[in-house]
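User: Need the bound-state model for cobalamin:
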Amino acid sequence: MRVLLINSNLKDDILAAPPIGLCYVASAAEVAGHEVRVLDLCFKQRIGQELEKAIIGFSPQVIGVSLRNLDNANMLRPVSYLPSALKIVQKIRALTAAPLVLGGSGASLDPQGVLEFLQGDYLIVSEGEKSFVALLEALNRGESPADIPGVGMWRQGKFHVTPPQLTSFPSGNPRLARWVDLTPYEKMGGSYTIQTKRGCRMRCIYCTYNQVLEGNRLRLRSPSEVVDEIEEAFYQFHPEAFEFVDSVFNDPIGHCQEILEEIIRRPWKARFTTMGVSPKNLDSQFLQLMKRAGFTSFMISPESASETMLTNYQKGFGLEDLLRAAEAINRFSFPVLWNFLVGGPGETARTLQETLKFIEQYLVRKKGPPYNLANIFLGVRIYPGTKLWHIALEEGLIHDKSNPLKPLWYLSQELDLDRTMRQLYRAACRRPEIALGDMEKYMPLTKIFGVTRKVFPFPKPYWQHLLLIHQILVKLGVRSLFQATGVPAQLREHLKLQSNRPISPPVADNKQSSSFLRN
Ligand code: B12
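Assistant: Bound-state model below.
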C-alpha cells in the first residue's frame, strides 16, 4: 500500500525532537513491503502547501499522523498542541478520503479522547511497529482491524481498543536520517536520537512511561546493535551529537555500561547527551565511563530533594542516593539540567524548602564555572492510568468525567500558593541556577541560537546556555520583573474549575481507562 506518515509536532525551538517514533513505524512498514513516505512538518513555514504537495503527488492509501505531545505539561505556562494538530488533520481530510491512523505518545495517553478530538479513523496505542503493519494488512484485505493488539477504533458507535502486546523490542534500526532531514534540528542544537530499550520499571506515581506508554517490562536491545546504529549514522550523516531517548538511560545499569563500553571500543569518537539519567547508580565511576564514551551533558529528574516527597512520588531512590549523585556530578564538568516537580501529594512549605536548600547547597558550585541548571515546575500533570489520577480523584481535584485532553493539575492542598510562589520567585531571582516553568514563554526566543550559530558557534545542546542567559538577567535585575502578580489567584481559579464536575459530560460515557499496561 502507499503509506504517508506525517509528523505533526511543530515545536521548533532548542528542544526540537526529531520524530524517531514515526521513523520506527516507517521502517517497519517499508520492511513489510509497503511504499512509504514521511512528511515532517516541524520547521515548515507553509503547512497547507506541504500537505497538498505530499498528498496530491503520492495519493496515499493510508495516512498516519503522529501526535507526540498533548501539551507542554507546564502549569505555570500551559500550552496545548491539540489545536495545531487538529488543523493539520482537517487539511488532510479536505485533501483525501484515505483512512487516517493516529499514533505517538500523545495519542496513547488518552486514545478515545484523541481519536474523537482529531476525528481519526484508527489509533495505535503505545508502540507502533507491529500494530501499524498488522493494521495495514487488515485494511489491504478489507478486514476489520478490531482484534489487532493496540488498535483503537469506533465500532458500532462506541470506542473499542485492544491492549497492546509489548513482549520484545519490535525492530532494529529506525534509520532516522533516511526519513527525516535532520539539518534544521541540528541547526537548533538537536541531536541524532537513539533508543536502547523500551519499558520502564520505575513506579513514579505521576508518570506515564511504565503505565501507559512503554509498559514496565524491560525490553533491551543488544548493546552491539545499538552501537552499530550509532556507527552507521556517524559515518553516513556525521551528526554533531547523539541523544539517548530512553525513559531512564542508566537502568538497568549493566546494560547501560555495556553500551558505553562498546562505544569506547569503537574507533570513532562521538558526542552524547541524554535526558533520562537516574540518581540511582550514579557515581564517579559511572560518570567517568559516560565521559570516556563521549558524554558532554545530560538531564536528570530527581523531582524533589525532600525524603518525604521522594517517597511520596515513589521515585525508587532516596535522598542519600541523590546527595551522592550530586557530589559525584560536581566532580565533573558536565552541564546538567535538573528537573524538579513542586506540588505533588504531601508537598508543604517545608518539603519545598528542603528542595531549594539542596539546590543552593549542591547545584550552586562554590568555585569554577556553573554547570547545573535547576528547572522547577509547579503543579504535577495528572494523566489517566497513573496512581496520581486515583489520588486526585479521591481528593476531589478531578472527577470521573474529567477530560485528560485538558491539562489537569495536582497541587498539594497543604501548600499555601501565595507563599509558594514567593518562595520560588525569591530563589529564582537570587540564583541564575534556578529556572521556573514560566520561563518557557521565552523558549521561542532560543531560536536565535540557530540563526547566529555561524558567528557564535555555542557548544550543543543549547539548553546549557540558558544558565548564562539567567546569569545575565539576574545581574541586570531583570528576573525580579518576571514575578507575575496574580499567578496564585489564576492557579486557584484553574484548580477550582478543574474539580467542578460538569452537568453534561464532555466525553462519552463508555470511556475506557488506558491503564491496561499495568502489571
Ligand atoms: C526523550 C524525551 C524528551 C527529550 C527529547 C529529546 C529528543 N531529541 O528527542 C526532551 C527532554 C527534549 C523532551 C522534551 C519535551 N517533552 Co518529552 N519525552 C521524552 C520521552 C522520555 C521519550 C520520547 C521518545 O523519543 N521515545 C522513543 C520513541 C521511539 O517512542 P515514541 O515517540 O513513543 O514512538 C512510538 C509510539 O508512540 C508509536 N508512534 C509514534 N509515532 C507514531 C505515528 C503513527 C502513525 C503510529 C501508528 C504510531 C506512532 O510508535 C513508535 C515506535 O514504537 C517521552 C516519554 C516516553 N517514554 O515516551 C517524553 C514525552 C513525550 N515528553 C513530553 C513532554 C510534555 C515534553 C515537552 C513538551 C516538555 C516541555 N515542557 O518542554 C518537550 C517537547 C519537546 C518536543 N520537541 O516535542 C510528554 C508528552 C505528554 C504530554 N503532556 O503531551 C512525554 C510523553 C512524557 C510525559 N510527561 O509523559 N522530551
